[in-house]
Design brief:
Elements lengths: L1 H16 L14 H4 L4 E9 L2 E10 L2 E8 L6 E8 L4 E8 L7 H12 L2 E6 L6 H17 L7 H7 L8 E5 L6 E6 L2 H5 L5 E2 L3 E3 L2 E8 L11 E8 L9 E13 L4 E6 L4 E4 L4 E9 H5 L10 E15 L4 E5 L7 E7 L10 E2 L3 E3 L2 E8 L10 E8 L9 E10 L10 E9 L5 E9 H5 L11 E15 L1
Parallel strand pairs: 3-6
Antiparallel strand pairs: 1-2, 2-3, 4-5, 4-6, 7-14, 8-17, 9-11, 10-11, 11-12, 12-16, 13-14, 13-15, 13-17, 18-27, 19-27, 20-22, 21-22, 22-23, 23-26, 24-25, 24-27
Length: 470
C-alpha cells in the first residue's frame, strides 16, 4: 500500500511539473487508454476577476489529485488531506513547499469533507487572498460535479439553495469566524414572539465598529419571505470624519452542527460603507426550509450559530460636499416687531434691530432711513439679514419672509408689505429692497406710518430648507 501511494505521488509530481498549460475551454481530457489503469486527467482554464486560473484534476479511484495555478504553471505547495475517524473531520499536512498555512490547506480539507475521498492538492494561490481562494475552489468543485464524481453531498445541495446577489460566492469552511459569533437558542421563538429584526452586540474589526442585523423570517421591508436575511452594519458613523467611506470584504457564516463546518457567504467584491449606505448583506441568505431541515445541521435542538469576518481593504475621506434638507412641514412663521423711536431724527447710517430666532437661527431687520445705493436720498431701504456670527460655517438657509411697515391708525391692510424667498448664507446674508418706499410718502403725517416719531417694522420668517456641508 505504501509503495502504491509513493508511486502515485511520484506520478503526480511528474505530471504537474511537466504540465503544459494551454488556454482552452473547460473540457476533459481522459487518458484511460494510455494509462490502462482507469486514470482520468482533466485540464481547464478559467479567468476570474482578471486572474487566470489553470486547473488540473487527476482521479484515481478513491483519491483525487488536483492542481490550482494562479497566472502561471508553477506547482506551488502540495498538500495531502484525508478523513479521520471517528469524528469524520479532515486532517491536512503539507508534503512539499513549506509550512501548511497556505490557502490550499483549507481547500484540501473542505474537498475531503465534501467528497469523502483522499485529496492531494497543489496550489500557488498567494496567501491572504480569500476571494481568489473561494473562486478557485468554486470552479474546482463545479468541474468535479460536471465530471460526475461522488461530490454532490448534502452541503452541495445547500449551495444550490443559496441566492446571493450577483458575484457573491458560497463556500464551506471548517474555520470559525475570527471576528464575531452569535449563538441563538430557541430560534423558533423569534417568529412566535413577532421578533422581525434582531441586532447583535457591537464588535470591532479593521479599526471600526460593526454589528450583525438578522431578520429571522426575511426582511419584510424588501418584500422578502421564506428566507433568512442577514446584514453587516456600520456602527457609530456619526463619530467618523466628514465624507468618510470604508471599503471592506466581509463573510457571513452559518454553522453546520452535523459536520462542524461553516457555510460561508462572501460578497463577490468590495462593499463601500459610507454615510448614506451603512448596511450591506444578503436579503436571501438561505431558505427557511433548508435552514430548518436537521439534515443540514444549521438548526439543531432549536439552536443555531452564525458569525462574521470583516476585512478593511481601504478607507478615505472624500472631498467637501453638502447636504440639502428641505423641510416637509415647516413650522409657523415667526414674527418679530421692531419699534423704532426718534425715527425722524435718524441719519443715513445703517440701523439694525435686535436679533430674533427662527428655525434655531438668528435673524435681524436692517434699515437705511435715508436709503442705500439706488435708493439713496429718495427711498427707505429695508432688508432681512441672517446673523453670520451664529450661522454654522458653510451653512445656507432657504427662507420665505415678509417685511412690513405698520400703519398705526388705519386697518392692517394698509401696511406697507414686501414678500420674498431667498437663500441666506455667508455670501448673501441680506435680502430686501433698496427702494422699499419713498421718503416723501412715509413721512406724510396723514399716512400714519410715523406717529410721534415712532415707526413700527415687522418681520415674518419661515425657513423652508437647510444646506449643510459634509
Amino acid at each position: 500500500m505504501a509503495s502504491e501511494v509513493n508511486s502515485n505521488l511520484e506520478e503526480l509530481k511528474t505530471s504537474m511539473e511537466n504540465l503544459n498549460v494551454q488556454q482552452q475551454p473547460s473540457s476533459s481530457s481522459r487518458n484511460d487508454a494510455a494509462s490502462g489503469n482507469g486514470v482520468e486527467v482533466t485540464c481547464f482554464t478559467e479567468v476570474v476577476d482578471d486572474v487566470t486560473l489553470h486547473l488540473q484534476i487527476i482521479h484515481l479511484g478513491k483519491q483525487i489529485y488536483a492542481w490550482i495555478g494562479c497566472n502561471s504553471g508553477k506547482l506551488g505547495h502540495l498538500y495531502a488531506a484525508a478523513s479521520t475517524r471517528p469524528n469524520n473531520t479532515a486532517s491536512v499536512t503539507c508534503v512539499l513547499g513549506g509550512n501548511s498555512d497556505n490557502s490550499g490547506t483549507g481547500i484540501a480539507r473542505r474537498l475531503v469533507l465534501k467528497t469523502g475521498l483522499n485529496i492531494m492538492l497543489a496550489s500557488n494561490i498567494p496567501k491572504n487572498s480569500p476571494l481568489l481562494e473561494a473562486n478557485a475552489e468554486k470552479k474546482l468543485v463545479e468541474k468535479l460535479i460536471h465530471l460526475g464524481k461522488d461530490i454532490v453531498t448534502v452541503m452541495t445541495e445547500v449551495l444550490s439553495n443559496i441566492s446571493p446577489p450577483p458575484g457573491a460566492v458560497a463556500s464551506i469552511s471548517d474555520a470559525s469566524p475570527v471576528h464575531y459569533i452569535v449563538k441563538i437558542e430557541l430560534f423558533s421563538l423569534l417568529a412566535k414572539n413577532a421578533v422581525e429584526k434582531y441586532e447583535s452586540g457591537v464588535f470591532k474589526a479593521g479599526g471600526y465598529t460593526w454589528k450583525l442585523v438578522l431578520y429571522p423570517s426575511g426582511n419584510k421591508s424588501r418584500n422578502v419571505k421564506d428566507y433568512i436575511s442577514l446584514y453587516l452594519a456600520k456602527v457609530d458613523a456619526s463619530s467618523l470624519p466628514l465624507g468618510w467611506e470604508v471599503h471592506v470584504i466581509f463573510r457571513l457564516f452559518l454553522l453546520d452542527q452535523n459536520k462542524d463546518s461553516y457555510l460561508v457567504i462572501q460578497a463577490g467584491q468590495e462593499r463601500r460603507f459610507h454615510g448614506l449606505k451603512l448596511e450591506w448583506g444578503f436579503d436571501q441568505l438561505i431558505q427557511l426550509s433548508t435552514f430548518n431541515d436537521s439534515r443540514y445541521g444549521f438548526l439543531l435542538e432549536d439552536t443555531c450559530m452564525l458569525g462574521a469576518e470583516v476585512f478593511v481593504r481601504r478607507e478615505r475621506s472624500r472631498g467637501v460636499g453638502e447636504v440639502l434638507s428641505m423641510i416637509k412641514q415647516p413650522t409657523a412663521a415667526f414674527k418679530h416687531t421692531w419699534k423704532i423711536e426718534n425715527f425722524l431724527k435718524l441719519d443715513e447710517k445703517r440701523q439694525e434691530s435686535q436679533t430674533f430666532s427662527s428655525a434655531s437661527e438668528k435673524w435681524k431687520i436692517v434699515l437705511y432711513p435715508k436709503g442705500k445705493d439706488f435708493g439713496m436720498g429718495t427711498h427707505l431701504s429695508l432688508y432681512l439679514a441672517v446673523d453670520l456670527e451664529t450661522l454654522p460655517a458653510g451653512c445656507r438657509l432657504y427662507a420665505d419672509y415678509t417685511l412690513r411697515i405698520v400703519n398705526q391708525v388705519k386697518d392692517r391692510k394698509f401696511d406697507l408689505s414686501g414678500k420674498a424667498k431667498h437663500w441666506f448664507g455667508a455670501s448673501t446674508s441680506e435680502s430686501g429692497w433698496t427702494r422699499y418706499v419713498s421718503l416723501d410718502y412715509i413721512y406724510q403725517p396723514n399716512n400714519a406710518y410715523v406717529i410721534k416719531g415712532i415707526c413700527i417694522v415687522e418681520a415674518e420668517v419661515n425657513v423652508l430648507g437647510i444646506s449643510s456641508p459634509f
